[in-house]
Every structure is written in C-alpha cells, then in structure tokens.
Amino acid sequence: MVLRITKQYAARVQQMIQRMDAIQGKNADAVNTLEDQVNDIVHEWQQKMEKLGAHPKGLWLADFDSGDGYYCWKFPEESIEYWHRYSDGFSGRIRILGGSVGTNGEQSRPADAKNSGVVQEF
Predict the structure, then answer these.
(1) pLDDT digits (tens, 9 = 90+) for 4-34
(2) 3-class DSSP state for residue 100?
C-alpha cells in the first residue's frame, strides 16, 4: 500500500515538474503556482503516511517505529529492507537480510519487517 500510494504521488509531482520545466522563464506566476501545488501534493503524501503509522522523514522517505529504532523505507524500494537506531537516521541504515539487526550492527534485532506485522500490505 505504501509503495502504491507513493508511486501515485511521485508521478503527480513528476508531471508538475515537467510542466514547470516547459514554462520556466516564460511565466513566473505559473511556475510559482505549480511549485505551490507540488508542495501541497508532498504534504498530502506525508499526511497519508502518518495515517498509516509511518513517520515521513523526507521526500518519499518513511520510517516505521520498531520499538528500538526504525524500519526505514525510501521510494522506489519494493519493500522494507533497512533498519536504523533512533539516533542514527538515514545514514545509519542497516540492511535486514532475512534475520534481524542489532544495536551494534550485528544480526540480532529487530525481526524481518515483512514478517513483523509492521506493514500488512506494503
């Protein structure tokens, strides 16, 4: 569900950017209007992600609380494959490889996101 929703919003933003590029330098007011619309679309996406229990952290980037860190997803990833501690953020992402990831990077915790109930239908 998260991937499908994000694909739809990303496509809408891409269309707006293409329209902005086509009129850049010709109509500043129209470009400003399109920029506002892009911001509105991104804000709508963020609200949808929050309703699904995610914490939007950037453009098409969402974290899901695991109790001791976050499962981390970024579009266009097909599934949740990364985890990071609360204090680490995106740069501290550790790939989940069929097991689990511990606080020191060793494979120990949390469980694989696909089987954890964090995301029912990704």
Answers:
(1) 999 999 999 999 999 999 998 999 999 999 9
(2) coil
61 and 49 fall within a common domain: no
What is the C-alpha to C-alpha distance for residues 24 and 88, in angstroms, rounded to an integer? 38
Q: Which distant-in-sequence residues (6+ apart) come within 8 Å of 93 by Cβ?
A: 72, 82, 83, 84
- Selection from 44, 41, 53 nearest residue 122 by Cα: 53
Long-range CB contacts (< 8 A, 24+ apart) of 91-97? 96/71
pTM equals: 0.78
Question: Helices 2-23 and 28-51 meet at what angle, rounded to 10?
Answer: 170
Residue 120 in any domain: the answer is no
Total domain count for the chain? 2
In which domain, by residue range, is 42 found?
2-53
